[in-house]
Amino acid sequence: MDVYLPIANLSVNGLFIVLLGGLTGILSGLFGVGGGFLTTPLLIFYGIPPTVAAASAATQVTGASVSGVLAHSKRNGVDYRMGAVMVGGGIVGALIGALLFNVLEALGQIDVVISILYVVLLGSIGTLMMREAATALRPGAETAGSQPRKRRHHPLVAGLPFRWRFYRSGLYISPLAPLILGTLVGVLTMLMGVGGGFLLVPAMLYLLGMSGNVVVGTSLFQILFVTMVTTMTHALTTKAVDIVLAGLLLLGSVLGAQFGTQIAMKARPEVLRLVLAAIVLLVALRMLYGLGVQPDEIYTVSPL
Amino acid sequence: MHSPFERALKFGFLGLAVLSLSAQREPVLVPEVSQSRIEVRQGFTGANLLLYGAVIDPVGGRERTQYDIVVVLKGPAEPVRLREKDRIAGIWMNAGSSDFRSVPSFFAVASSRPVDEIVDERTAAIYELGTDFIQLSPSGEIEPEEQNRFAAGLVDMRQRAGLYKVDPDGVRISEGVLYQARIALPSNVITGPYTAETFAIAEGRVLASATAEIEVAKVGLEGQVVNAAERSSLLYGLVAIILSLGMGLIAGRYFNRS
């Protein structure tokens, strides 16, 4: 089924894009991540211009996260106060990201920066997750793991001034910590077309020391709002949001997400995390390979 | 079927009749295009453009000259910056760059024989009868040798994208009068005005030439999407957000109920 993408300016196999959206949807249903980290690179490998890929993937992540936010909010799994602070940071981050995007594009280095960000972030997060999942899966880990890990925030976070109470997260910390975290993730959302869940969730757990039952819901809350802002920023500045592409991705991902949720209820969480870690590492390795090996296309054209 | 080719035939003979009244020494080229407007809409996978017409000999020339026909189709030109990747500290990243002021977004040459058998290199360069002869108008201070490397890289890249091409037997000539050229436009063509130049060549000399215009435009939903994204960006962004929110909500609700 050939579908013409008006903004990307090329004809693609519509079924393939829907399946791609479905794949990332399954991931988001399984792991509570948006799946943008997979969509954007796969779209670029497929031949979609990088900017259009990042902008349209951000639009898709909005749709993929909205039903998750509602589900988590029903069971009090969203810390709105924490979420609002992070969204505030995220909006600032998205605007900084837009500026960076323009500067890097003018310098001609946007592609390489995006690739390096992917390699570094996905590589390190993937390695961490892989190690953790492998430890949990080792025989005898059940008994050792059953002892709850003492929850505490990072000393750097404790050193920040002003303190607010975040009841649902069970924290009394400076709002600057989630604000800075939100800003960083906002920058990445704009540059990489990712929601940032793969980065937010570990940071909220291990840096802020948030209570585990609100982490995923609050992360989705932040992602929902920041991807909306990102879509708008792209629509106004780069004009690279392809609504047809985003619609096809959404179609796949909203269906895939439901499917993923079903699997998630049956599978062992350690196994799931191992699989996610493997996927994250594969994407990072593919990106690393792309940076190190002579590309098929030495030249790139940009309008003057 | 009443093909465009048949219409051309009639048209050609009509022209012949009219022209035979006046004494003319140079041949005349009567070009026609199958479509003067190509519409890019949903499901657009490219288009086949048929350029046809007739070469009419000067009157009195009993011994008919054997003509060669070359058709050059050019898309709207744009100024571009071409960047070249190089290995820096083990990473392939953009290093050098060069600017070109008029790079056609599409360039196709179809001819009845390989162009180098029809004309010499000088003539080919004058009339841009090949991808090596596109006048890209390089600008900026850069050594000619490096400039050539960049130009060759640009042409090679566009060739692999199917945007620049040469077809040495893309033109069929019948009865030495009628010609027919087929040029395929891929789905990734840029919209705008295209020009098709047709040259009638004999003994290495361009004897007649004619130009036809073809408009490539995005229409229907596709055209509206591009218009909206460019002109009412705010509204377009809002629609994109509402679409994604709506689809997420509907799917979530529908599946949670079942």
From TrEMBL, chain A:
- Pfam families, alphabetized: TauE
UniProt superkingdom: Bacteria
Q: Where in the cell is it found?
A: Cell membrane; Membrane
Q: What is the recorded membrane topology of this protein?
A: Multi-pass membrane protein
Chief place of localization:
membrane
Keywords for the protein's UniProt record, in alphabetical order = Cell membrane, Membrane, Transmembrane, Transmembrane helix
Q: Which residues cross the membrane?
A: 12-38, 44-71, 83-104, 110-130, 171-192, 204-228, 240-259, 271-289
Signal peptide start-end: none
Matching InterPro entries, A to Z? TM_pro_TauE-like (IPR002781), TSUP/Inactive_protease-like (IPR051598)
Entry's Gene Ontology cellular component terms: plasma membrane
What family does this belong to?
A: Belongs to the 4-toluene sulfonate uptake permease (TSUP) (TC 2.A.102) family.
Q: What is this protein called?
A: Probable membrane transporter protein
Q: Record the organism.
A: Erythrobacter crassostreae
Automatic annotation (TrEMBL), chain B:
UniProt keywords (A-Z) are:
Membrane, Transmembrane, Transmembrane helix
The name of this protein is TIGR02186 family protein
> Which is an annotated Pfam family here?
Alph_Pro_TM
InterPro entries, alphabetized: CHP02186-rel_TM (IPR019088)
Q: Where are the transmembrane segments?
A: 234-255
